[in-house]
Each structure stands twice: as C-alpha cells, then as structure tokens.
Amino acid sequence: MTTTHEERPVTTTTQNAGGVPAAQTPEPVIEMRDISITFGNVRALDGVSLRLLPGEVHALMGENGAGKSTLIKALTGVYTIDSGTIVVGGEEHQFSTPAAAQAAGISTVYQEVNLVPNLTVAENMLLGREPRFLGGINVRAMNRRAAATLERLGLDIDPRSMLGDHPIAIQQLVAIARAVDVEARVVILDEPTSSLDADEVEKLFEVMRRLRADGVAIVFVSHFLDQIYEIADRMTILRNGRLVEERMVADTTQLQLVQLMIGRELEALERLDRAATHQVTTTEPVLKAVGLSRKGSLEATDLCLYDGEVVGVAGLLGSGRTELARLLFGADTADNGTLEIRSARRRLRSPRHAIDRKVAFSSEDRKAEGVIADLTVADNMLLALQASRGWLRPIPQATRNRLVADYIEALDIRPADPNALMRNLSGGNQQKVLLARWLITEPELLILDEPTRGIDIGAKAQIQAKVAELAGKGMSVVFISAELEEVLRLSDRLVVMRDRRKIDERRNHDVTVSDVLEIIAGQGDAAGSRTEEETSRD
Amino acid sequence: MTDTLTPPAAERAARPGPGARILASPLLWPVVALLLLVVINTLALAFDFAGRGETSFFLNVRIQDGHLYGNIIDIARNSAPVLLVALGMTLIIATRGIDLSVGAIAAIAGAVACTRLVGAADEGAVTAAIMACTWALAVCVLLGLWNGFLVAVLGIQPILATLVLMVAGRGLAMLVTDGQITTVHNDTFSDLATGFVLGLPVASLIAVGMVVVAAVLTRRTALGMLIEAVGINPEASRLAGVRARTIIWTVYVFGAFCAGLAGLIIAANTNSVNANSLGLWIELDAILAVVIGGTALTGGRFSLAGTLVGALFITTLARTIPNVGIPSEANYLFKAVVVVAVCLLQSPRARAALRVRRRPVPKGAHS
Question: Does the domain at residues B28-342 carry the CATH identifier 1.10.10?
Fold first, then answer.
C-alpha cells in the first residue's frame, strides 16, 4: 500500500480537504476530518477528510478497496473510527451506532434494498416510527404521510401497495423516500444504480435533483462515470485508503478522474484490443450443447465453444445469460437437451462433474456463491483444486505457497498476504482471488459470469487482460457481462440472449454497441444471424 | 514489479509480537476461566483442610496402587465422555449443523454393549468385551449414517433431523434392554472407565486419543478446510466442487461414533446401563463445551483445542461446586451463569463495548 503512495506520479500529496476555492463554500452540513480506521493489519482509511455542503450531490470516487465503503460506514456509525473527528452542524459527533447517525440526520440507502417485501410501501417508509393512535398504528395517517413524501419526490407509487410487488428500481426509490422521510440532511446512495435500467436511473436522478433543491446533501457512489458527470457537483477521490483530492466535477475531465482514481497510466485499458483477432482453426468443439433447456430458466439453446476463443454473452438482466452459464456448469441440471464435452456425451448433475471435465464457472453473485468470507485468501484460492483432489490428498505446503504467491503476483491482489481473511478484501480483489481459484484448476473452458461487476477500473482492466491472455494460450472462455463495451472488446464471437433464449449469434466483426442493442430490441437482422449461427456450429 | 517485494516485509514488521498474539488468541478466555476454577478449588481445599489442621493442595498428584491419583486425574477421567461427545459436536457444528441425538446414541451404545455382554457365552472374557463394544460402535455408525442421511441427502434442518433420534433413540435403547437396568460383570469392560494404562486413566486416553485422531484428520488433511468452507458458505463450496454431502455425512457418523465411545465409558463406570438416564442431557453439555471453546454455532471455523478446554472447564465446574461448599444441585445454576458469560463474550455488541472502554482516551489530540 505504501509503495503505491510513493510511486504516484501526480503531485497530490500536498492536497488536502482545504483544496476547494473559498468563494463557494457555505457551512458544510458534515465535515469528516482525518478519519483513520484499521482492521487487523489493514489500514482501511488513513487520514481521510470529507466535506458535504448543503444542496449538493457529492460523488465519492475511487477503485474498489479505495475506502469508499469504509468511509460511508464510518459516517453512518457502522464502524467506529480509530481517530479523527466528525463534525455535524458545527458539533463534534462520534456515532457508535447507525441509529445515532440517523438521529443526526444521516440516512443511507444501500446497494441491496433492505426493506420488508411483504409490508406495504407506507409501512416500509415509516417502519419504526409509525403514527400512533390509541396504542395502535394509525394506518390512515401513515398512508397520508407516505403519500405526501412520495409526492414531494414526484413519485407515483401507491403507498398501500405491497413493496414486494414492485420492481427493484421502485423499491430502491421507496428506500430513498424512507430516507427522506426521516428529515435527512444527508442521504447516502451507495451504488443505487447498479441494477437499474436507463429510465429508472433517470427517475432516480429526478428524485435526487429534487432533494438537492431542498438543500439535502447527497453522497453518491457509482461505478458509472457518465452518471457521475450527469448528476454530481463535487467529488472526493480516494485511493488505497487515502484522500487523493476534492474536486469540482465540472473542472475535471473523465481521463483526469480515472487517472486520479487509479494513480497509474491508462495503458492497461488501452492496450487491450483483441476483438476479432482470433481465427477459428479448431474442428472439434470443447463443448457442444444442443437444445439445452430448463423449465423456468432457459428455453432450448444450442451453443458450441471452441479452444482459444472468447464467446461473449450479451443480454439484459433476466435474459437467460446467467441461466445458460449455470446449465453449462451443472450448477443447475438441464431438463432437456444434450451436452457434449470434448465430443463425449455428458450429463452434468453437479458442478463437480463439470470441474472433473475441466470446466470452471465463476458466479455473478460473488458474495453468496463465490467468497468464503472467513477463510484466508490462500484457502479461498485453493478451494476448487483441493475439492477436486479430495480431502485425503492435501496440496503439499510448498505447492500451496508457490501457487498462492504466483497468483497474488500475477493478478496483483492486495493486500499481498496469503493469510489475510477474504472478508477484509475489497470486491475487486475478491474477484481476482476467485479467478485465481479457477485458474489454479487449469480449466479448458472458463465461464465468467459478470467477473467485473462492481469492481474498479484498474481491477477490471487487469481481469480483461487476463481473459485475453488465457484465450491466447488456448483456453475457451465464456464471458458474460451487462456492460456491452466490455463484451464487444473481448469476444471473438457474440451470443445475444433475450427472453430466456439465444436470439442471435455472430462473429464479432466490428459489431458495435448499437448493433447489439438493436438485436436485443428486436430490430436485428434475424435471417442473417441465423446463417451465421449455422456455420459456426459446423 | 518491485512493489510486490516490499509489502510482505512491511507486513511482517507490523505483525504483533508473542504477547499480543496470546491476548488476541480465541483460547485466551476459556483457558483463563479454567485456571480461575483451579485457583478457586485450590483455595477452597486449602482453607477447608486448614480448618482441620491439615494441608492439602488441589493440584497434588501422587502415585497410589501403581497409577496416578489426585483431583486433576479425576477431572481428566470424568471429562472423557463429555469431551468425546463435544469433539464430534465441534465438527458437526462447524458444518452449520447440530446433533441433539448424541445422548440417545450414547444410551444405545451402552445398552447394546451390556446386553451383548450379558448374552455372551463367557460374560467375563476379554473377547466378549471387545465383541460387545464393536457391536455397540457399529450400531452407532449406523445411527450416524441415518442422521447424516436426513441432513445431507434429504436436506432436513439438523436440529429437526437429529431430534428424531433424540426422542426415538432412548426408546430404542429401552427396547434393547427390555426396559431393565442391565448389570454386567466384565473387568475388561469396566476398565474402560476405571482402568489405568501406564498410570493414566483409560477413559482419558481414549478421549485424548480421539482428539488427536480428529486433529490429524482435519488439520493434516484438507478435511478441516473443507468442513469450514461448507460451514461458512455451502453454496459457494458446492460451486467450487466441494462434496458437501459427503463431508456432512462424515461428520455425523464421526459424531455418532464419538457418542458411542462416550456411552461405553459411562456404562462401564457403573457396570450397568439404564437406558433412561445414560448420557441424559450430555448433548447440551457438549454444545456448551464447544461454544466455550470458541466455535460459533453459526458454523465455519472450529477449534478442537478450544473444545478440549471447554470440556475440562465443564467437568471442573461440576467438581468445584461441592468443593466450595455449595450443594451440587446448584451446578445447573452455575452452568447457566457460564452460558450467559459465554454469550456476552461472543456478542459483537458486548465486545465492542469492552473495546471502547479499554481504548485509551486521546488527550488533546485536536487542540
């Protein structure tokens, strides 16, 4: 950690929280000064400051592991700070619980909506502070109050409807409405847009603008740079647990911002341009699926995967892209269809069968289906290999150490400590460990479902580069991502999914994002793509 | 790539010294509690004997009749059943499970062994004892397979799945013994509980032997890591290719086997079996021992050494109560206090409160 700090080419060391022109500084709603937090040996935050002004959208920027989440949790009383001060409205505070922070007017809306789906919208908004009447809850007053708040935010939602009946986006807006109802002075939105589509994002921004006009300070965390530039006024940039700079968004180009965030040249991102460089020379597919289907998740789908080829799977959330991956790996079992791996018919009843056939799969749900939080980095990395060897044949200590050290270096995992607990790593680093887990098993087919979701640009570039390198060495890779640019950049062949089936498959010759969007929207050249599909299968 | 060389060195420098490591060890509090009990006993005994003009030291061990003799030897011997049951329970709990049926399994083991002995051609023969114990343990393995089947294959919640056998098992033991208290006469069998080898109690040797076996199985192979992985995140483990089903099944069989050994030792101690009372509530003592030892009921990381200390603690506590002049019926009350204390020590909120209080207040840091 310290080394990156020293090697930083940009002279940001002297900058501090006082870097903003004095002309436009009203009294901050909240000022965090020199906050430090340490977990075990890991310094998560090192003297970081943050100022939030009334009526602004303040973007908190940084790679994964930069300390954004930690800073937010320090502000909301989830973590206790080791040193530093938090000044709210001129008074020094030390929040030891989330409730204390909330009482001071700081509300948080987390990435995952944590409301109660089987209560009504109004009940959720006023949970824990329902208007009372004769010892019971005054339902009418509650609905009235909820309706008033929703109206103020310009949201057309029936307060009496069940929360769970609404799509995630609406639930998220309800979560924000709940935050606003507490008379929040500060609203923290941690990755609120990661599961929203464009319309929904616009609706969210509309709500944010209204709040800003009301003088609320909004902390906004998002990995989408375009969104930052659309909505945010100022930003604080963190890197490796330190403050890099506080800046006006309007005065910063995207390139500058990215450089400040990752602190190194962008060449990692630029270098990778392998799209369509691969020539199919193989005759025999690694994997061939015919009519693969599963009730409720995937309709009959054909797919062929070849050595040394990256197949990108594009499609919206719920289009069947994850379901397809799970069937190819045996994470779910297929109802119908056949699967051949290296020309041998296989029925995959469990992931184990797939792993034995040299297939690897990294799930989109890192937390629930990937990370073993309480084990070390080393154990997490070696889990799949150890599982396939069986418990009676432990990996020899020397091999263990070598493998783990190699992959920590190759994937630039931080902290570079094999004995660090997985839970203490940032999302991007956890993702790299999971990638290492599968690379260690030396698979012939690697299925990556959203390997770069929610991780920073630096880690993203590293993972993309690794994928390209692996395919270059002959591995067959299935790359699934919601980010079309990423899919297009990496894949040799493109599979487009919609409504739980494959609607198109084509070589990636100069396919553009708008081409793919057209295909998804149903305006694609269906006939042309089908012939392409036929040829590629033979 | 020079930066990859520096961090390890820097981290090594920052690594806490031996003193800090002891303070941070999860075994610290169980061991301190155990030592505290020993001190209380020592004082109580010294005071008691001083009143009669004698001297006695709690930790005294002397050789009598060719074997070691003393309070701590007694405790080691008496703790064997609970230690055995707790040992199996540790691994089960590590997989997010629990086994309520171990008491019943112990009773069945005792019942099977005693009825086989009584029915043997020569009740006193060494071979009869060996055969009887083998039968009993084989039955226990079957019962463990049953529990494991319910949990790992049918996916029934462990607490419910093992409740079946907890209730039915005692009935089974009653059937085996015809509802009678069966008394046996076999020196080899009773040596399980009261015998000595190399001056050490056989029961303790068996229990410690099993601890060593478990430690080797889990820490010298990859079993421990896989058990922990399954306990921490079953779905992620499955997707990584871990045979969760086999592992869960194995720990229930191991748990039942340990419970069977405990049942044999308990039966041998009285040379009889009462299907109604043998090993009654021992599952709760075992769970308590596991928790005192620092293995969380939520599964995941486990500590066999902790369980050892936990079992010793519970047995020592049972002995301390009469030693300090409190009627032994009050034992339950003190166990309850221990449970509360353990819960508090494990509660994140209580820990946070302790930590805040312990941290020195920074003086004039911002002035």
Answer: no
